[in-house]
Amino acid sequence: MAPTKLFITGSTGFIGGSVLDAIQSTYPELEITALLRKPNESFTSRYPSIKIIKGTFEDFDIIQDASEQADIVLHAGNTDHMASVKAILAGLAKKTTQSLLLHLTGTASISDTMQGNKAYAGKLNPRVWNDIDDVDEIYNLSTDIIHRDVDRLIADANNELIKTITISPPDIYGQKTGSGTTGSFLVPEYDKAIIELKKAFYLGEGQNIRGLVHISDVVSLFVLILGKYLQGGEGLDYGKEGFYFASSDGVKWKDAAEAIARIGHEQGWLPEETQPVSLSLEEFVKLRFKNSFFQDQIILYMWGSNSRAESARAKRLGWEPKGPSFWDCLAEDCRVAAEEYAKASK
């Protein structure tokens, strides 16, 4: 019997690289092909058996052809890149045998501020989205909201031959595994921001809650779902219902800001005399940093919004988050982020 072929994008990213490392060791029988913009020696030496296809998300034909040759496509790259998803689906549509598209997205689409609701900015929003009870509402969210156009396209593409599953983690903490070249986002970018400002900050009361998950728990859900599919798919949901939150915890941002400030003082990258400050909404959205990605909407989403999810569907499948807590990882995550910022600033 021919080996099952898996095509992966985003394999040098924080999530994709960590997932690849786990599935390559857990399922060594898979024949894996990776799309890489520029293959590097660390990747090729670590994974000598993985076939590399040179290309970018703009290379429609390359992605289409690789997808057509695959039994499983794991899309862990730019989750909002519509053209690459269309190329994947076009390739899978050419197949006469069943295939799986396993897609990575995120919980920004359930953020209250991303949905245009600023009433709870800096405050506790009691809403917790459940991926079973709220699946219809999630599916029907406006495609103008971040991620939703691609997520909807993938859900709608599900049919007898193309099975689609979307995994949606919230903010991730912890350090990468594998050959990934990037890190997490929430804490590292906040560290860089407060280093530039020379003070920690939060919005208003700082009671808004960010959903969280350790990188190892995101990886374990990918591995679990992939394993279930390889064994015949019992218990898996696809299409609209194939939407799996991967959330395990949450943190009030004032608590995080205060803890990060203390760590910054202890590690020496934040002036010891500075204390976290509460900013008004007007002050908050006017913050600007060296990274031009952080404009008012993104700043408000990252550190001023609520984005809370209940992973009912994943837990029904047997997923159990076992990674270390946010607080146990925070000092190391801050240290790594501060060191990387210092290197980049030289």
Automatic annotation (TrEMBL):
Protein origin, superkingdom: Eukaryota
GO (cellular component) term, any one: cytoplasm
Domain (NAD-dependent epimerase/dehydratase): residue spans on this chain: 7-81, 151-235
SUPFAM superfamilies registered for this protein in UniProt: NAD(P)-binding Rossmann-fold domains (SSF51735)
A GO molecular-function descriptor: aldehyde dehydrogenase (NAD+) activity
Name of the molecule in the record: NAD-dependent epimerase/dehydratase domain-containing protein
Lineage, opening ranks: Eukaryota, Fungi, Dikarya, Ascomycota, Pezizomycotina
